[in-house]
Each structure stands twice: as C-alpha cells, then as structure tokens.
Amino acid sequence: MTADMLIVFTLLGGAIALFLSDRIRMDLVALMLVVSLALSGIITPAEAVSGFGEPVVVMIAALFVVGEGLLRTGIASATGSWLLRVGGDSETRLLLFLLPVVALLSAFMSSTGAVALLLPVVMSLSRRSGFAPSRLLMPLAFAALIGGMLTLIGTPPNIIVSGQMRSSGLEPFSFFDFTPIGLAVLVAGMLYLILIARRLLPDHSPEADEREGIRALYERYDLSRQLHKLEVLPGSPLAQKTPAEAALRTEYEVTLIAISRSGGWLSSLIPVLANTRMQYGDQLLVYADHACLERICEEQALRVLDCPSGDVSRLEQSAGLAEVLLPPDSRLCGQTVKQARLRESLGLSVIGLRRNRELSDLHFASTELAAGDTLLLAGSWERIRNLGQGRELVVLNLPPELEEIPTHGSRAPLALGILLAMLVTMTTGWLDNLSAILLAALGMILSGCVNLKEAYRSLNATSLILIAGMLPMALAMERSGALDFMVQHLISLIGNSSPLVLCASMFLITSLLSQFISNTATTVLVAPVALSTAQLLGINPEPVMISVAIAASTAFATPIASPVNTLVLAPGNYRFADFARVGIPLQLLALVLTLTLTPLLFPF
User: Fold this and answer.
1) Inside any domain, residue 413
2) Three-class SS of residue 244?
3) Are 128 and 316 in contact (CB under 8 A)?
4) Which of 172, 193, 268, 437 is close enough to 139 for a disulfide, judged by CB 3.0 to 4.6 Å?
5) Does residue 407 lie in a domain region?
6) How confident is the model at residue 311 (pLDDT cuts 50, 70, 90)?
7) Does Chaperone show up as a keyword for this record (predicted)?
8) Residue 556 in 3-state DSSP?
9) Rg (CA), the chain
10) Looking at the predicted structure, is the pLDDT value of residue 81 above 60?
C-alpha cells in the first residue's frame, strides 16, 4: 500500500466516522474533505472543488427550481391532496400509492430527478397528514433507486454493463432485460418498506421551526371543537342575505369562514366574496361555540352536518390563520372586537383570544382588547401574506403552510406543460438530461411559474454541498490506486469459485463500493473485472454483469451513497446511521432475489 492510498483511506475513514458521530453537520464534513484532498496533493485544488461544477450537481440544482415551480403553481399541493385523499390517514396506503409512482418515473428518467420532483409533494403531504417527513422520504428515495433497475435507461450502471458487453463483442442487454429482476426487487422492496421498515424508520421531526402550523394553532386556541358545518334549509331567513345582513357575528357570535356550493368553496373572508349571498342548500363552515350554534340553528333554520377532515384540508388551501400581538401603544387597546373593525381594515376576522397566556372568552361586541393580548386572525392567504408589522399589531406567527400556498396558481398549466416537455425529451433522448432539465428550470422562471427570489431560495445548500464535496473522493481513490487496490484484493479472495459465488461476490463488492463513491464510477471499475473473471471461469457473463448492475443501484446504506439519498437527508432530518439500519436489510433482500432469479433468466 502506497502513502497516497493510506492518505485516501484515512480521509475516507475519518469522514465516515464523523458522519456516524453526528457531531458535525454532514455538509461541513464534506467541505473539510474537499480542503483535505486539496492539501494532500493527490488531486489538484481545482480537481478538489470540481464537484461543484459536475453535471449531476448542476442538474439537481435545476431540478430544485423545477420542483419550486410545481410548488408555487399549486401542482405539488394538488398532487399531495390527491395522495392524501386516496391514502387517507393511513401511512401504509400513502406509501402504496407513492412508491410505485416514483419507481415508474425512475424507470424512464433519472432517479435523482424523480425524487427532486416529488420532494415538494411529499413535504406538503407530510405537513398536512401529520406524518413526520422521515417516515416518507427514505422509502421514496429507496423506491426511486429500485425503479432504476427496471429498464436499460433507468440508471447509468445498466447502460455501462451493456456497453461493456458490446465492446467485448457480446450481445448487449435489451431495454427490458433488467425488468423481471427489477420488478421482483421492487415488489419485495415495497413490502419490506411498508410492512417491516416502518418499524425501523426514524420518527424525526423536521428541523426546528419556531413557527406553529395551522393544526398547532387550532389546538392552542381550542378551535377544533368550534369548527362546524351547517346546511341552509328551505325556508331559512338567511337565504339571499350576506353575512353582514344576517348579523351572524353581532347577533349570534358566529364567524362564517366559507360557503360550499355545488362542490366549490366560496370564502367569505376574501374581500371580493364578502357580499356573497347565502342560498338554500348552501353548506356553511363556521366557528361558534355550542350555545351559539344551537341558537342560530333554531332561529335561522339551519342543520348541523358532520365536518370531515377533508373539509378542513380544502379550506386550508384558500384560508389560513395568523397570530398577532397588541403592543402597549396600539390604538386598538380598550376597543371591542367590533369597534376594532379588523375585518374591514385587514380583511381578517378575529376568531381567538389569549390573555396572560391563557385562552380567554371572545365576544364580538363586548370583549375589550388589552395590551399584551394575542389574537388569532383568520382570512385568505393573500391577506395573511400582506399582513405586515405595525404599531397596531405585531405579527407573532405566520404558519409555515403559507409557503406552500400557490403564489402563481394561474400558471399551473404552463408549469405542467414544462414538466411534461422535460419528461418527454429525457425519455425519448431528444436532449441529454442536463440540457432538458436546465431548459425546464429556465422555462419555469421565464414563464413566471417561479420568480428569481423563489428560485434561489429553493436551492437546498446542504444537499448540494454534500454531493459536490464527496464527488472528488472517487477521483482521489482512482488517482491514488486505492480503488483498484480494493477491487483486486477482493477479487483474489474469490479464486476459482462457483458461478453463484462469483455473482454473489461481485454483488457484494459493487454494493459495498457504491455506498461511498458514485455507483457509476464503481460500475466502470468493476464491470470489466467481472466480465474478464466470468470469461476466465468459462461461464456466461450475462448473469454476472446483471448482478453488478443491480448491486450498483442498491445504494441504500449511507446518505452519501447516491445523490438520491442526499436529497432527502436534510428534509427528513436523518442521521447517518438511519440509512444503515433501514438500508442494509434491503440490500440483503436484493442480493437474495438477484442470486435466485438471475440464473433462471440468464443460465450460467
């Protein structure tokens, strides 16, 4: 072993130890590795930072912009709503729908791209379903990696082993040669991820956010028991009246939030709909205590209906909440809620009051506001977004859901068209992946689906730095001879073993190396060795090469094994060891299936 090899192995081992210790952020460890490689002299300083210009890093950054376009135009939210509707409150059902979708996308496009596109969808889904992102994102990443096993173009290792066969004068693999084994791994992997891995998956909360979400505000202000749905019965005096004409707040202490008519929601909190007249058969979503509810139902011919959680989810798309504080010099101090006229000045209604950190009764006409009171305001997201700091009110909490509300909803068809065009050009090969994705990102910006500020904010610096920082390690291992040293010593242990042992050995070697360096680089190195060894043993190289290709996609055990894993690392708030705990059993499952099916499909 040379000095250069020793340096590389030491740096790699030190990086892994720091990752496992979880005492230093992973992106900082990656930067430390970049500096160490530059100082080592094994690769030049320019090569040490070359990862930041690698196509895969640029591609991922562009995909973040494309994903932000889907988020800002409401496509991500709509997809999340559909998944939530079909999956309900069951984590199992959500995964049953989510995992095949990402696997199918990964079969025809980059698995990294598939995950980057679905990342905003899953984050929105996680927030609204109440499941921690860590429960969904790792299965998403693993299903994407397995999806790459399904077709020849699903992942670069498949193409590399096929090219190696062709360059050696052998018949290359066809488009669907990988499908039977990939499909078996996908089905078994889904069963594992849904039935077994859920007991191994961490339940990490996302990174600390000082803001409280809508559901937390519901609980703090005890609103869940005050949210009701009423039906306007035939003969009701409310028919053809506006909320103001019906004196819902002044007379009954009832706050009308939205009107459902023919399946559509009409929010009375949006100024343009403030004069909407109620009709027979309308369903009213209101805030009111039980005493007020009984009175208005009796006097105004209304009927109480069940208010399912789906109604709340639909409401949250158009109307939200904000928490504000009354400073001592506010002119609102001493005024009643009615006199404050916040609905007229801000377009927002007061639906909750906390005084001295305790929940307080709120009466529209008689409760006087005091300095230090915190008020819960409800209204359209547009009004909440425009709620600024001032002398009268200090904004304490704008829910994080505000960031998910479409700001460019009218451009959703454009965003969908750009996405489809990107997928078509990538699948058909009209353009290379990088060009197609860069054009899609530029199209999102130029079409107004996302503005420049939103585009820059969408870039996940942690993921990009970690990927870019680890890429030069593969070059250092190759330049120092460390990679060849590892492979040759592992191959020497195989000797004249049986074909099945050869396949298993090649699988384990490829899978192990893929946990720390690019699976593409691993395949480039291992494929010719595997082919030569098979030919020397006088066996059919096809099953050996298939084993190498499948193993290269089993990058499950570390967050640096694949850009796919790195993408979900920060949003899922995962630890290094989380991937090993969930990923290693999946690797062993893929190994067993590959060794079982490959000899049947490609006899030795």
Assistant:
1) no
2) coil
3) yes
4) 193
5) no
6) low
7) no
8) coil
9) 29
10) yes
Instruction: Specify whether 191 is located in the same domain as 253.
Output: no
Q: Which of 387, 362, 372, 384 is nearest to 332 (CA)?
A: 372
Give every CB contact of residue 259 below 8 A, 6+ residues apart in sequence.
265, 266, 267, 268, 276, 278, 282, 283, 284, 285
Tokens of 92: 């199992």
* pLDDT beyond 60 at 75: yes
First to last CA, the chain: 36
Higher pLDDT, 308 or 138: 138
More confident residue, 347 or 515: 515
Tens of pLDDT, residues 429-487: 788 778 888 999 999 999 999 989 888 888 877 777 877 887 787 788 778 888 677 66
191 contacts: CB under 8 Å, gap ≥ 6? none
Amino acid, single-letter form, for residue 519: N
- Inter-CA distances, 121 with 115, 282, 292, 438, Å: 10, 32, 39, 21
**CA pair distance 320, 311, nearest whole angstrom:** 13
Least confident among 102-116, 265-279, 346-360? 265-279
- Identify which of 119, 186, 118 has the alpha carbon closest to the alpha carbon of residue 149: 186
Residues ≥6 apart with Cβ < 8 Å to 177: 152, 546
CA angle 345-349-353, nearest 5°? 120
Return the closest-CA partner of residue 157 out of 111, 216, 99: 111
Question: How far apart, in whole angstroms, are the C-alpha atoms of residue 156 and residue 239?
Answer: 65
Tally the domains of the chain. Answer: 2
Its domain, for residue 133, covers 3-206+435-601
What single-letter DSSP state applies at residue 85? H
- Could you read off the pLDDT of 230-250 as tens digits, one per residue? 888 998 998 888 887 888 877
Q: Among 338, 370, 398, where does a domain finish?
A: 398
The CATH number assigned to the domain holding 240 equals 3.30.70.1450
Percent of the chain's residues with pLDDT above 70: 88
- 424 lies in some domain: no
Angle at 130 between CA 409 and CA 225, to 5 degrees: 95
**Residue 409 included in any domain:** no
Say which DSSP state 171 is in: P
Token couple for 172: 């290359």
- Token pair, residue 276, equals 């909407």
Q: What is the DSSP letter of 229?
A: E
Which of 165, 55, 52 minimizes the C-alpha distance to 523? Answer: 165
**Residue 170 burial (10 A CB sphere; 0-12, 13-18, 19+):** middle
Res. 268 pLDDT band, cuts 50 70 90: very low
